[in-house]
């Protein structure tokens, strides 16, 4: 690898550094704190390093975590289209979830460039939006702290991003969905139909969020529903929403861990976007708990993101997602999820992939955020708004290229002599 030929201005030095680390010419233009620029003027990616601290963050954490810290703190900005820029950067640097590998010669040149640029020094304090949890992984207390970090950002902020439905999971963009609201209504109704909801049934929603599914199920299908969440702010919002809909006699919202529910049996259980928080080690406990809460021939609908086999599932201790978005989150291959559900005693009857739908949903959320950026910053912080923009845009691209997926797994608790009471065809199931 060639030595870094640092030029007289900051941008030239930085551009040479990046080129040396990556080992190739890159379609990237850089503008630095001193106003200098380097790189192709028509580059598809234009980065702005607003402060020397951006480079110090990268020197101390030469990984996606360093890049994320620089962006979240405002030390680094992206001037070109955000989705296109992220897509190019991912292709440029490839899989860089760990520290970037550079040889000894390049390391020496990086040190010289750092001295010239005046960026050497102690590691900068991470942005306030970063979290590192203590205690036993997936204990009830630690899970509650992880959920609070992600969901107790503020209901007004979530309403801005998610839209009026306040539905934080993959929408279903069927032929009739013209808007995000249409698509989210289609999703909760799809879950209701797969569960075979009928008037008078008793339904549990595990990880109920802001109450979209339990409200739809009670209003449209006449069921009695219990929704549980670990987020106080979600529960407060959901209870108010239930009251406004006139459904307080049919819908109960609890702040409760799924391991603490003792009032079964239920006729049906929905788990929509919650299993990602459970963790592989706890999946047998999770599936067995839901099995015990269902009556014979009761149905479970598990809606969860999945990863390809062979890719680490715990999102990496030093990954942006783990430190800023979903602490302790774990994605499992579909086979692992189905296996845990089957091993607990369920019979799996239907699996549906919604991967492309989640990419469309995430792009809609990013559009909502960008359209009301100033208000989002006012409601939380600029750092938090940047976390969400980066997280949702990156995830949309990941779904689009098929690196992760999302699936609805429908299972049934067998009844007497193994009877399931299930329709024989998917057409009958959804009618």
UniProtKB/TrEMBL annotation:
Species classification: Bacteria, Bacillati, Actinomycetota, Actinomycetes, Pseudonocardiales
Gene Ontology biological process terms, A to Z: lipid biosynthetic process; methylation
Polyketide synthase-like methyltransferase domain segment(s): 157-414
Highest taxon, organism lineage: Bacteria
Species: Amycolatopsis rhizosphaerae
Name of this chain's protein: Class I SAM-dependent methyltransferase
Key words, A-Z: Lipid metabolism, Methyltransferase, S-adenosyl-L-methionine, Transferase
InterPro entries assigned to the protein according to its UniProt record, in alphabetical order: CFA/CMAS, CMAS, MeTfrase_dom, SAM-dependent_MTases_sf
Family the UniProt entry places it in: Belongs to the CFA/CMAS family.
SUPFAM superfamilies, per the entry: S-adenosyl-L-methionine-dependent methyltransferases
PANTHER family referenced in this protein's UniProt entry, alphabetically: CYCLOPROPANE-FATTY-ACYL-PHOSPHOLIPID SYNTHASE
Active site per UniProt: 395
Keyword S-adenosyl-L-methionine among record annotations: yes
GO terms, molecular function: methyltransferase activity
UniProt KW Lipid metabolism keyword: yes
